[in-house]
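REVIEWER CHECKLIST
Item 1: Sequence provided? yes
Item 2: Single chain? yes
Item 3: Sequence as submitted:
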Amino acid sequence: MNDANNMTKYSLRSWVLVLALAPTILVGILLGGYFTINRFYELEDTLIEQASNIIEPLAIAAEVGLESKDFETTKRLITSAQLNKASLVQFIAIFDEDNRVVVTSHHYKNHEVMRFDKPLDSMLRTQLEQVGDSMILRSPIFKSSNAPVQGFGGSQQAGTDVIKIGYIAILINKENALLQQHRAAVAAFIIVLIGVQLNLFFTFRLVKNVTQPITEMVRVVAKIREGKLDTRLTGNLIGELDLLKRGINAMAGSLSEYHDEMQQNIDQATSDLRETLEQIEIQNVELDMAKKRAQEASRIKSEFLANMSHELRTPLNGVIGFAKQLLKTPLHSSQQDYIRTIERSATNLLSIINDILDFSKLEAGKMVLENIPFSLRETIEETVTLLSSSAREKELELVIDVDSRIPEDVTGDAMRFSQIITNLVGNAIKFTDKGSVQLKLQFEEIKEGKVHLRFEVIDSGIGIDEQQQSSLFQAFGQADSSISRRFGGTGLGLVITKRLVNRMSGQIGCYSEPNQGSTFWFTLPLNISQYPINDALPLATLEGKSIILMGANNLTQNAIERMLQRWGLKVTLIQNTKQLEFISTQSNFIFDFALMSCQAITKTDEPARLLKLVKPKVNYLLLISDCIEHEEVFSQLRPHVDKQISMPVGEKLLSSSLLDPHSASMHDNLMPLAPITAPATLENLSVLAVDDNPANLKLIDTLLKELVTQVQVANNGDLAVKLAKERSYDLIFMDIQMPGTDGINATKQIRSNSANRNTPIIAVTAHAIAEERERISSSGMDGYLPKPIDEAALKGVITRWKTRPKFTHFDQRTLNWDLCLTQANNKPDLALDMLKMLLKSLPETVEHIEHALNTTDNDKMLACIHKLHGACCYCGVPTTQMLCQQIESGLKRGDTVEDVEPEILELLDELTKVESAANQVISQLSVDI
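Item 4: Structure as written out by the authors:
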């Protein structure tokens, strides 16, 4: 990859020059070097050969003079030879056998260099020695005339008769040879240079004919890439370059045609897009107008629902209220029956109105679900108990079966949860003529702080075929139109239930067969409450105790048996009266409890005798009131029963009854209906009631006079304001919708300038939608009482507000007791317990927050704030809750402790205020609650 990148750094011209010149220069250098070196060696060999031709004849000729000691002749000989070859021979010297200079050709300053520095016996032939720019040849002189004088290539062996008498040495000058070598080198260099120049000439011609057209092609391709599609290559090129030129021109032509076609398509698409945008803009305008019309229609619908709610509830308030008042007067049985029929009819009409309002709120997405702690089993038992009378009238077995693994304390919307149970169980009772209705709760899992539950409502009713099941959860629809005529109803119950379950992140479904009953199921994830709603019952005290269990129906008996065994009781099942009589007469064992069904024992002719027989064998006898109410039967059973418990038998009811069997009857269902009487003592309170409707004003006046000592009424808002300025009241009940000065404006005037600025003002209204309630709450009113007015609810409001604490030493945004009550499901003892737990945890919480602030520990700070935020949700501390939410949100977004330090410091100050306010509230309320 790197080699390829490096290659692209050089142009084609550079590569052509390199590839053309490099081989030529390399070959020229190699050939020139070869021939030059070869010439050097030839010249040197020639010089040595010339020197050998001089020295060897002189060695032979010098033998006579050296042997005869005729040195003068020898001198002339070597001098003549040196002068004859003066350009070649510089100096000649003859040495005797003792290596002494005998004769020289002439005087030479450095003749010692001519001496042979090795033993003379080792010189067997002519020898060569290089000395700088000269060389010395030495040749031995033999005494024998036929002695072999060998050259450089001859054998070195001599005969035994050869006598060596000296040697001759010649100093040869190499300057001429060196000069000829230099001339040869220069000639070789010139020849190589000429070759390179010729190669350059032809290479540049090649570059001109090849690289220039390619460069032009590159330029043309670059212009085409820039969008200049009319650019073309011109001129005549050679070979493949001409083919490449034609290809590039053809490609440019194709691109130009494609570009023109694409431009036409773009223009067409742009035109279409412009038309589409215009259409979309028109549609947006139409949608905006439709949206405004829909919003206006929704507003009109909401106003219509509010007005209809008010207009329908107002007369119903009078009908139901005065019907209940009539029941308090002396009436014969037929008149009481007529009045109860009127009351039930009005109540049914109110239920239909509530269903329509709930459906409208769900359809508009305006229903707000609460998230408050509640007791799961207690809520279920209270809800199903309200439906037990309908089941008892039809002699149906109503059973609650709750999985023991399900936690008791959860958080959610308890009212809507009860509504779901009421709709499903109520439907099961309505469509079941005989048999049983069972509510079964199953535990699925606990995940991320939520318990996932499965609820099943199983009945043995008429059933539904598969085709009709598809219309069950549709508004205003039922499985069969004949059912609507037979059983009545709006067909909204199931669709409201389905939408409520879906809003709570659950699912709902049904499986059924005709004449085989139905099973409606739904699943719900409920948050597990951090705080216990009620004190835990001491169920451990029941372990090991004995109990007789006699039920009339298997489902109820099995459910009760499982509960008793789970609590550790020793259960003895009684299947019939004969078995009961046998245990009562033959056994000496005394049982701790006996739990017996009224329906089971009344199957005998003498139920009182049977109970009288059993009573000595048990310490406590509890009677399940599952039979139809008859005063005659009850009067017979009353002396033998310690406590009566109603159907259905739930865990809370049964455990409380076993732990406290002496307490008053919790559900005295066998007692005959007694007329409601006024309380023996009236509350010493002065109350003002305001309503523009004469019937409603008369009703609330009548109800209040049965509860308080002083009641004053006003039929309009102006009169109410006038009365509020004249005197002080303990409590004011204010209608909302009135002509002239309505309840909201009247409340504002009373709050601003009157003698009742701090008097609790309770809104009494037939408005049932959430927006209206929020408007009432924000107007300065302290409470809400819906129409039709329920006497028990009215009494509860008076009881609550007569002892309302007066908190004046702290801001209501620091601690709001009314909000705390709302978050605790209007249970004062639970609200107080939660406030105490918050107060107890504050010192440790403040310490952890300060430590995390000092160490800038983000994770620890987030954990502390998250825990505090969870506790604040149930204690009515809005400012603290708001600050915790801000800090927690910031830390989860990635902010550091330093970023949220101002909010943390503000939170610490607020916690100090909360601690002071909580101490005041607890000190004032602990005695009263």
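Item 5: Key structural point noted by reviewer: The first strand starts at residue 89 and ends at 96.
Item 6: Recommendation: ____
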